[in-house]
């Protein structure tokens, strides 16, 4: 079946590449992706499958029933772009200033569309139902949570899979690991306040800016000391803003940053640590601090059994030399973790490193390019995961 599945995927790839390039030229950010949704629906229209559109976003969910009973398998692709100005020089480079598919979500969407066509032609082999989920708002907009709130997991799927392209992994290769794969991502805002004043009379004001400046190394040092080397986590500061004019002592400073953690215990400890350090540093400077938090995504934790199934499926499709088990998790975040917290499944990396690239630009870079030759692998793997027998 593997060779014929790859042939079917290859036959679909002209349409896959056409859709991917169209999405790449006109990237859209966040939850409202009307052009992306319209192009996707046009590509799926010949299949005439039951389709549900999101109420709070441009999500698309397609149901494909097989001819035989079996599991409900969720396959997910994200669709949104990033606020990045593209500098690749590709013929189909972004035509939207300040927006780019710098994380490959255009490829994810196109590959799952291609898999829909492959699976539709193989309905007689499909046991159960494939639920094809096209999700907006992955890049910090809570898209997955919104879809779950609209009933995505009702009824609860039996298993769930997603692919994410990696421009640093060899093209056409696949990698994942059981257990934690990616970190939980949370962002914080620390607001330091105190008495402002005239620069000529500093004794009548509080050193809000000094407190903010001291807080950055203090947070980094305290987090480094508090983290268990065997169970690491990260705290970082990204921005510091204070002051309005050279002669004015600021009465307010705002810092933003975040944490990356693999376990809930570390996540709770990081929240406590940021609050303690912010309060202590602010008070030492005669100021006050308020900390607010926003959760971006939970840790992405792969189910061991479904990961074994996915790796075995990929090996049968591609050969053992193109399938890899990762030694350790990474500290990027991915909101597919919301699904995996409720449904056994796995997220796999699909290698898309451009041929000859010795130092390829990573995801989120304005120079990120991917090898479109790997898309056939993604189409075939999405389809193979849906066709894989339940264990």
Automatic annotation (TrEMBL):
Cofactors that this protein relies on: Mn(2+)
Any Pfam family the entry gives: Peptidase_M20
Protein name as it appears in the record: Amidohydrolase
Molecular function terms, GO-annotated: hydrolase activity; metal ion binding
Domain named Peptidase M20 dimerisation: residues: 188-274
Superkingdom as given in the UniProt entry: Bacteria
PANTHER family: METALLOPEPTIDASE, PUTATIVE (AFU_ORTHOLOGUE AFUA_6G09600)-RELATED, PEPTIDASE M20 FAMILY MEMBER
Record key words, sorted: Manganese, Metal-binding
Lineage: Bacteria, Bacillati, Actinomycetota, Actinomycetes, Streptosporangiales
Keyword check for Nucleotide-binding: no
Protein's UniProt keywords contain Manganese: yes
InterPro entries tied to this protein: Amidohydrolase, Bact_exopeptidase_dim_dom, Peptidase_M20, Peptidase_M20_dimer
Binding site for Mn(2+): 103, 105, 139, 164, 364
Cofactor annotation comment: The Mn(2+) ion enhances activity.
Residues spanning the membrane: none
